[in-house]
Design goal:
Helix content: 40-55%
CATH class: Alpha Beta
Distance between the termini: 18 Å
Largest sheet: 6 strands, parallel
Radius of gyration: 16 Å
Strand content: 5-15%
Number of strands: 6
Structural class: alpha/beta
CATH architecture: 3-Layer(aba) Sandwich
CATH superfamily: P-loop containing nucleotide triphosphate hydrolases
Number of domains: 1
CATH topology: Rossmann fold
């Protein structure tokens, strides 16, 4: 079955595209058929893939569907039969209907959050959107992913605050690493950067494994009912 993952947060700069393309690149690198739905008018995911060399394309298809807005779920359903994973990169807009639409058909909502007080305050809105979507899509689950984690005492305190946010926190975290920005420059998955991206690769691989475990656990739970 196709697994649909929506990456969303109403605050910009939290690393939605980094998470979406990091996961897409990982699953594609492993041999899965992956579609990234670029639902953000900034089209960062599309530009990331377009930066790849002709002889080394990004290992996932990217389709820009930002213009579909509240009808995104209807358009995405057209691709379900063709891919193992569909990953939706949502826009950072409070007034956008795109996240609500995407969550109607998603198995998992990933909310990237930078562990800082300001980012935690700003992320409250997406929590409400997820909870509203769960009233309609009962199989939808959500996880917080700590991104750009600083190795400071303030960062540690903010990480503790994430535990009480109301959305389960992934065990995997992503650090402040230049490899993620370098991957955008080359239009590549993190893994193709080699040894200089060893830590970043390890982090995104761990997150990719955890995401699959979450989705599989939910499916197993539903089948048992």
């Amino acid at each position: 079955m196709t697994k649909i993952i929506t990456v969303a947060n109403q605050k910009g700069g939290c690393g939605k595209t980094t998470v979406a393309m990091g996961l897409a690149g990982t699953y594609g690198y492993r041999g899965s058929k992956v579609l990234v739905v670029d639902a953000d008018l900034q089209a960062t995911a599309s530009r990331w893939a377009a930066s790849a060399a002709d002889d080394a394309p990004f290992p996932a298809a990217v389709n820009g569907l930002a213009a579909t807005g509240g009808k995104l779920h209807r358009e995405v359903q057209k691709y379900i039969a063709d891919y193992d994973f569909i990953i939706i990169d949502c826009p950072p807009a409070v007034e956008s209907q795109t996240p609500q639409s995407a969550l109607l058909i998603s198995d998992l909502a990933i909310v990237p959050v930078v562990p800082s007080p300001a980012d935690l305050w700003a992320a409250r809105g997406i929590k409400q959107i997820v909870e509203t979507a769960q009233d309609i899509n009962e199989s939808l689950r959500a996880m917080l992913v700590a991104n750009m984690v600083p190795r400071t005492s303030l960062g540690n305190e903010a990480m503790d605050a994430l535990e009480d946010f109301g959305i389960p926190l992934a065990k995997s975290t992503l650090g402040q690493r230049t490899a993620f920005r370098e991957a955008v420059l080359y239009g590549s998955p993190i893994q193709s950067l080699g040894s200089r991206a060893r830590d970043a690769s390890r982090e995104i691989e761990a997150l990719a494994d955890e995401v699959i475990s979450w989705i599989n656990a939910v499916q197993a739970e539903e089948e048992a009912q």
